[in-house]
Amino acid sequence: MSAGADMLHGPGAVRWGAAGLVILALHGGALLVAAAPWEMTPPPPLPEAAVMIDLAPLPAAPPSPAPPPPQEAAPDPAPAPEPEVVEPDLPDLPPPPPVPVPDPEPLQVAPKPRPKPPAPPKPRVQTPPKPVPPKVQKPVEQPPETVPENATAQASGAPAAPTQSTAPAGPPAPAAPSSYMTTDAARSWQAEMFAHLERHRRYPRQAQLRNQQGQVTLRFSIDREGHVLASSIERPSGNALFDRETLAMMKRADPLPPPPDDIPSTELTFVVPVIFSLR
Q1: Rounded to 5 degrees, what angle do the CA atoms 192, 195, 201 make?
Q2: Cys-Cys crosslink for 131: which of 43, 48, 215, 270, Cβ 3.0 to 4.6 Å?
Q3: Quick check: helix, strand or coil at residue 270?
């Protein structure tokens, strides 16, 4: 019993099973060949009964060795410290010379044009009217005196008393101006003389503070050298300040420019207005 059980459950059972399968395969193949229709052959004889051979059991295979335990992973080695790099001592080098920077060109700024000073107001020069020629007093023709008869006797004995003229004796009248006063030289001399008077004219301080204005009519006479022979107020202004200043102007202006040679008169008289205006 033990031998049969070993054959059924031991390693020989495998062989027997394999042999049985081979036999079945052979029988199956034979059946197929026998069943082929092309040839009727007698069926092959049945195989003989299988001989049962009791085989000794094969020695059991040695157990496979157990796998070695897993080796513990070795710790990573610590990283080696990096060697310190020792920089060699370099000699102190002098700093490089500074690069010369060119001076920036100065900006040329156009000077601002200075405002022109306001032109001084031109002095108001009023051209005086032409001098009024003085009236020439013609000598009065007196009728011849009738001498009475008794006067002849007196004339023989004693000189008769001088008779007085009925016409009053006036001042000597200057020579009447003629066409020589209209020449270019005469007009130029008159303009120069009036400009000379204007330069010596002063505005009275008190009249200027009071904003007073006026006009004086002046009469004056000069000789050939320009010296003032006489000056007077022909028509007063109504303000004594202007009248006095007009006469003082003639004293300051003496002498005046002398007349040109083409004016033959030895004495010249003029009547001119002197204007005092704040405008």
Answers
A1: 145
A2: 270
A3: strand
Q: Read off the tokens for 14.
A: 């495998």
Distance of CA 82 to the CA centre of its chain: 69
Sole residue written with tokens 């390693």: 11
- Last residue in a domain, options 58, 83, 100: 58
Which strand ranges, in their side-by-side order, compose the sheet holding 228-235? 228-235, 214-223, 267-276
How far, in Å, CA of 31 to CA of 35, rounded? 6
What is the DSSP code string of 69-84? PPPPPPPPPPPPPPPP
pLDDT score for 23:
87
Domain of residue 48: give its range. Answer: 1-58
> What do you get for the CA distance between the two ends of the chain, in Å?
173
Question: Rounded to an integer, what distance in angstroms lies between the CA atom of residue 4 and that of residue 13?
Answer: 10
Confidence band for 229, pLDDT divided at 50, 70 and 90: very high
Residue pLDDT, tens place only, 143-156: 444 433 433 333 33
Round to whole Å and give the CA distance between 147 and 163. 12
- The CATH number covering residue 230 comes to 3.30.1150.10
Specify the pLDDT at position 263: 85
Phi, psi at 104, each rounded to 5°: -65, 140
Residue with tokens 């008779």: 163
Distance between CA atoms of 257 and 188, rounded to whole angstroms? 11
**Please, what is the Cα angle at 81 between 75 and 87, to 5 degrees?**
170
C-alpha span between 250 and 257 (Å, rounded): 13
Q: Which residues pair with 217 in a beta bridge?
A: 235, 273
